[in-house]
Amino acid sequence: MGLFSKKKAAIDYDAVFKEQYKSINQLLQQAHQEMDYVIKESLYELIVEKYRELIELINQGASFDKDHFVALMDNAQKELTMIHQMNKDV
After folding, report:
1. pLDDT of residue 7
2. Would you list the DSSP string of the chain?
3. What is the reported pTM?
4. Is the pLDDT assigned to residue 1 strictly greater than 90?
5. Of 4, 39, 79, 86, which has fewest CB within 10 angstroms of its CB?
């Protein structure tokens, strides 16, 4: 009888958030050390996208300060825009 009635596994949004944030920090460290600005631009595009995912996790229930992470995403977006402009000028 209970063969098809499995309970849905509860998602720990805080744990998912922490893992995602850890990967963002690793990408940021890699981007800061990268000398090739084309690669740096690609890394920042990924970083901005991952910040969007963090904000979505907050919207889904992760208990972190949304305004703080929006500000971090905005800073990463500004850095991406600056790098993109530098690459365009070269």
Report:
1. 67
2. -GGG-PPPPPP-HHHHHHHHHHHHHHHHHHHHH---HHHHHHHHHHHHHHHHHHHHHHHHT--S-HHHHHHHHHHHHHHHHHHHHHHHH-
3. 0.86
4. no
5. 4
Q: What token pair was written down for 28? A: 């940021």
And the tokens for 56? 């979505």
Amino acid 35 reads M
Q: Take residue 46 and report the two structure tokens written for it.
A: 């990924």
Give the model confidence (pLDDT) of 23-52 as tens digits: 999 999 999 999 999 999 999 999 999 999
| CB environment 67-86: b (16+ within 10 A), e (fewer) | eebeebbeebbebbeebeee
